[in-house]
Design a protein that fits this description.
heterodimer; A: 462 residues; mainly alpha; two-stranded antiparallel sheet; 75% helix; B: 496 residues; 20 helices; globular
């Protein structure tokens, strides 16, 4: 058995960042709590570096429960990089807040839980990671201690606790049936078990994963949390946990037994339902955060497509990994614009192009990116996703995804159109009142989505 | 060199956006300069072109799916590259008097120019698709940002409709990719060994996806309904580009992708293509006849003219037909793409002149313009006659070849289809004569008083387009010499 802690070096770096940050936060005066953000960022950068080095080594399994393979490498880098950008967004937004350092530490811990979720090769580790990733999220959602934030936190918590318990019962059932909790052993152990009971266990397990992924039927928390929590927290909960959730889903989809239920078909139906429901609900939104929330639900639907064809197409794994990274980057860019502008109504964005042309252009690139317009990163992801679906004999799912992509243009354009109006809206902040740091992150991510799209060949090769 | 031609406009556009604020006229002169240089480069490429695929560049882009940055020119793409460069230059000159957000307008058109040139030069399906999709985004912003009337709604309809088409096309491309062994997006490889040769059912499905995607862009009946509102509410230069260049992306796709890569299903379903073509010809002409709005009328004649091209490429798929006749049909189709681009571009710019003076396209409110605006009238007459296919102008050369090819292919079906489609020419002639009658002749209408004649910049934009049509009409050899080898190649590829 491999018990080399160095295999977990990226996680240890981030953990060190969180712990040192928490301890230093206790002693730092309020005005200088930003140091904690720097410590956290240093931990993340070290984590990304260590993950990059680890990616060059052969695949392995640490502590019999922590799979280290390309899925983990990509999840690590995507989660840490996204968290780094979110720390940047947070640094401007919670500056000199009484609990500033706690905010950073909670974000780091949630990110750590997400990576563990992605890399877990054992149901018990998966369950622990679920809690580690969720609980900081609940606290973050209610961080502002205002009415909307409290409601968001409560909804998030109730939904997470309910589906977490369902998931735990599923894990228990599968353990009883398969006499093991590790994925590898379950693959064999479940093949002889009663098919009906296995089906119940797997469905219960998938419930918790759907919660983390924001997919139907675990999606109810997404719009409320995105709207109620602070914009930075909204960015985090719609971006980072999804990365871990889809990695975990992909792993589990690979070991599901062929039994009473046609699992790929079930996941395909969930995918179709998720993308359609997210899109339909996004149509009528006037609040940009709710709009983005439903957009993330529809994106979760597209991300489920490669999960549905896992093991049936060579394109499934690159499609999932590339799409998840591209989605995280693009979604983060869109939210960064919201953080920078600080307004929630669609109408408040009227005239943004005139007041802040670069920021408006970034918004357009990110939104068109979410549509899947070339040459942005999500386009390459969608291309692979369509390819995987057709290759995996799920052409109907690709057609559903196409129809949904077209429909989604409608609501993204509802946001783009006012941006180019000549008269600025009455609530649009002056150019000087925009959050500079967030605006820079928005522009940077927009450029990065283009670079990742054009350079997708390089990214896919590694 | 080809890469330079493609990306020079984009580079200038970025320069315009980044560099310190120039005055509006200076911006337009920079824009015109870029177009002139680009046109000169295209001419140099034309002069240096010596058969086969010239000026080829093939760089690995996404090796894991075998997609590359693969561009080159041949007899099909070269005329369209030249058309694109000419038409964009005309639009730049026409926009000399533009005052609304000039910098963004110029940058957007330069971006569109890169997109259009890139599409016609692309020899990789993924690259083709990237440009195909970006053309929609660019044109959306042109219509939504600088259009008039109900432009935001028309732009949205345009975006949704053509975006659906592009994604269906993408599914078709993925089908081609997965059908090829080894999987590839490279057009040259796919043309060399047509994918899905052993599975006719799948090949038919892929052709359906590719065909629907391209048909929406072309557009053909019944998927043409995005076109009239988009054209009517777009700015004049936008309409000229949309009709002159971007519609050709659909028909170009037929000869470049659908025919050579899916020869067997193309031959099998050629009759469907012919029927769609004939219906488009007649329906477009009849609906145009009923219009009072001049711009909408020209938009519908585009449906009619694109119908001839679809008819021709369908007739080229009839394996039983005579080879020479089928070559003639394809040559006619490509010539029609160039000819329609020049003529319709000019007509839409003339519409823009009319709207600039009278702020209306309603033909009933004008009349007797020949007296107050003689040059405008003369240009409109030439444009109208060119569009209805008068000998001596480019439309005649194109349509003559199409009909000769379709009838001469010797199959009864194609001959009768062509005979029916000839009715379209008759209707077009009637409707253009009616336009001349209502707008140019007769007593003055309520808006006639406000109409002044074309200005220097407008004349400099429109006259060369009509002159080019005249040159092609009188001495078409220089164009046909380039197209004919390529159309012969396409016909032999379809016959495999």
């Amino acid at each position: 058995m491999n018990e080399n802690p160095v295999d977990l070096l990226p996680e240890l770096c981030v953990l060190a960042g969180a712990v040192i940050g928490l301890l230093s936060g206790l002693f730092l005066p309020r005005a200088r709590q930003w140091v904690v953000a720097v410590i956290g960022a240093a931990g993340l950068v070290a984590g990304i570096g260590a993950a990059g080095v680890a990616a060059t080594r052969p695949d392995t399994m640490a502590f019999d429960a922590f799979v280290i393979d390309p899925i983990t490498h990509v999840s690590r880098i995507a989660v840490f990089a996204a968290t780094l950008l979110i720390l940047g967004l947070a640094a401007g937004a919670v500056r000199a807040h009484p609990r500033e350092s706690e905010f950073y530490v909670l974000i780091l811990l949630a990110a750590l839980g997400t990576v563990a979720f992605a890399a877990a090769g054992d149901l018990l580790v998966l369950m622990a990671a679920y809690l580690l990733a969720s609980i900081p999220g609940y606290a973050l959602a209610g961080f502002g201690k205002d009415a909307a934030g409290t409601e968001a936190a409560l909804k998030y918590y109730l939904m997470g606790a309910l589906l977490g318990i369902v998931m735990l019962s599923g894990v228990t059932l599968l353990y009883g049936l398969g006499r093991a909790t590790s994925y590898e052993m379950l693959r064999d152990g479940l093949s002889g078990a009663p098919a009906g009971a296995v089906a119940v266990g797997v469905v219960a397990l998938l419930a918790g994963l759907a919660f983390k992924a924001g997919a139907v039927p675990g999606h109810f928390w997404v719009p409320d949390v995105t709207e109620g929590a602070s914009p930075v927290v909204a960015t985090f909960v719609t971006t980072v946990p999804k990365i871990g959730a889809f990695a975990a889903l992909y792993r589990i989809a690979g070991v599901l037994p062929r039994g009473a239920v046609d699992w790929p078909l079930l996941i395909a139906i969930v995918a179709a339902a998720t993308m359609t429901l997210g899109n339909l609900a996004a149509f009528a939104q006037d609040n940009v955060r709710r709009l983005l929330a439903y957009s993330t639900i529809s994106q979760a639907g597209y991300l489920l497509v490669p999960v549905a064809v896992a093991g049936r197409s060579d394109l499934a794994q690159p499609a999932l990994l590339f799409y998840v990274g591209a989605y995280a980057l693009t979604n983060l860019g869109s939210f960064a614009v919201v953080v920078a502008v600080g307004r929630d109504r669609l109408a408040d964005y009227a005239g943004l192009a005139r007041r802040a042309p670069l920021l408006a252009l970034s918004l357009v690139i990110c939104l068109l990116g979410l549509v899947g317009t070339p040459p942005t990163a999500v386009f390459a992801g969608k291309l692979l996703m369509f390819g995987a679906a057709v290759d995996g004999r799920y052409t109907w799912l690709a057609v559903v995804a196409v129809v949904n992509s077209v429909a989604s243009v409608f609501y993204y354009l509802r946001w783009i159109v006012p941006v180019f109006e000549t008269a600025p809206g009455p609530h649009l902040p002056e150019a000087g009142e925009l959050l500079r740091g967030a605006a820079m992150i928005a522009v940077g991510t927009a450029v990065a989505t283009l670079a990742l799209g054009i350079g997708s060949g390089v990214a896919l090769a590694t | 060199m080809l890469t330079l031609v493609i990306f020079l406009p984009l580079a200038v556009a970025l320069g315009l956006l980044v560099l310190p604020r120039l005055r509006d006229t200076a911006v337009i002169w920079v824009w015109i300069g870029a177009c002139v240089v680009d046109l000169a480069l295209v001419v140099a490429i034309w002069v240096g072109y010596d058969g086969g695929i010239g000026y080829e560049t093939d760089v690995r882009w996404i090796p894991s799916v075998r997609a590359g940055y693969h561009v080159g020119v041949d007899g099909l793409s070269l005329p369209l590259l030249a058309l694109t460069a000419v038409l964009f230059l005309a639009c730049a000159v026409f926009s000399l008097r533009q005052t609304r957000r000039v910098r963004a307008f110029a940058a957007l058109f330069l971006f569109l120019q890169t997109v259009c040139l890139g599409l016609f030069a692309a020899l990789d399906l993924l690259l083709f698709f990237v440009f195909f999709d970006l053309s929609i985004v660019g044109m959306y912003f042109v219509i939504a940002g600088w259009g008039h009337g109900d432009n935001v709604r028309s732009a949205l309809k345009f975006f949704l409709y053509t975006f659906l088409g592009s994604l269906v096309l993408l599914l078709g491309f993925i089908g081609l990719y997965l059908g090829a062994e080894p999987h590839t997006f490279d057009m040259a490889d796919l043309t060399r060994t047509p994918p899905l040769n052993g599975s006719p059912g799948l090949a038919a499905l892929v052709l359906l996806a590719v065909g629907v995607g391209l048909a929406i862009k072309t557009p053909t009946v019944p998927v043409h309904t995005w076109l009239p509102p988009a054209h009517t509410d777009a700015p004049a230069a936008g309409s000229a580009i949309l009709a002159g260049v971007m519609l050709k992306m659909g028909t170009y796709g037929f000869v470049r992708i659908a025919m050579p890569m899916l020869p067997e299903p193309w031959r099998r379903y050629a009759w469907v293509v012919i029927v769609v073509g004939v219906v488009s010809v007649l329906y477009g002409a009849l609906v145009a006849l009923a219009q009072d709005n001049l711009k909408r009328l020209i938009a519908y004649t585009s449906v009619n003219h694109m119908g001839y091209i679809v008819l021709a490429v369908g007739a080229a798929g009839l394996a039983a037909g005579d080879v020479d006749a089928r070559r003639l049909a394809v040559t006619g189709a490509v010539t029609q793409m160039v000819s329609h681009g020049l003529i319709t571009g000019a007509l839409f710019l003339l519409c823009g002149v009319l709207n600039d003076r009278g702020h209306s396209y309603d033909m009933d409110r004008y009349g007797g313009l020949a007296r107050v605006a003689p040059v405008f009238a003369a240009l409109t007459v030439v444009g109208a006659f060119a569009s209805l296919g008068l000998p001596g102008l480019s439309g005649f050369i194109a349509e003559f070849q199409i009909f000769t090819g379709a009838i001469g292919s010797g199959t009864g079906a194609a001959a009768s289809a062509a005979a029916v489609a000839i009715l379209g020419i008759l209707i077009t002639a009637a409707l253009f004569l009616r336009v001349l009658h209502r707008v140019l002749l007769g007593g003055p209408g309520e808006l006639t008083g406000g109409v002044t004649d074309v200005r220097g910049s407008e004349l400099a934009a429109i006259a060369p387009l009509l002159a080019a049509s005249l040159v092609i009409g009188i001495a078409p050899r220089f164009l046909l010499d380039v197209i004919e080898p390529a159309s012969a190649a396409v016909v032999s590829l379809v016959a495999r």
